[in-house]
Structure prediction request, 234 residues.
Amino acid sequence: MKSTKPMVAVVGAGPGLGRAIARRFGSAGHPVALISRNAEKLRGLADDLAAEGTIARAYPADVTDAKTLTDALEAAAEELGRIGVLSYSPAPTFPNVAGQVPDLKALGFTAAAETTPESVRPMFDMLVGGALTAAAAVLPGMREARDGALLFTTGTTAIRTIPGMSNSGIALAGLRSWARGLHVDLADEGIYVGHLSIGLPIVPGSGEGDPDALADRWYQLAVARDAFETTVGF
Prediction:
């Protein structure tokens, strides 16, 4: 099934921000392709969105596997139509429990003096490598149509140093720098590139950190296309 509006591919579609982004663009009439590793959860999310009236399909893929991610995006375009918006927001699992400080080491983060090539590589593969693969998969169609939007979501360490999270900072700051360069490179081709950095916990009902509020901020920025970057919680 194809819509008259271009499709939105949500890479890193989870129960929080990913679902909110899918819902926001879906409510505006865009079909949505949901991409993440967990096939069962992804299908449940697609079913929930479909029940709300959004055309949604699940395409399981690991963002660190270039072939499966590319295949998923190509399959989505074949079924749902041209990819007009790519939302890329995979992130390490980061529980937000009131009154508890997460164990950063247990979550795979490293302090600056303890950061090694080995500790950076998984962060790079997920946060940067997948973004490069996804962009390469969708840009030919966007360039042919001379229209499209690439939306990259990051966290605090893309902009500010957080003790104990230097390996993610290397990856996210690099992603932000590349996205800014892409924003400049593609401006004359009708393709928008944007960056949203979130510096607070993503928690329902928390004001600016509410997933729906963040998704609406993304939607408004993608429509206006008047700035490369916006931040929340800084």
Remarks:
- The CA atoms of residues 204 and 210 lie 4 Å apart.
- The longest strand covers residues 148-155.
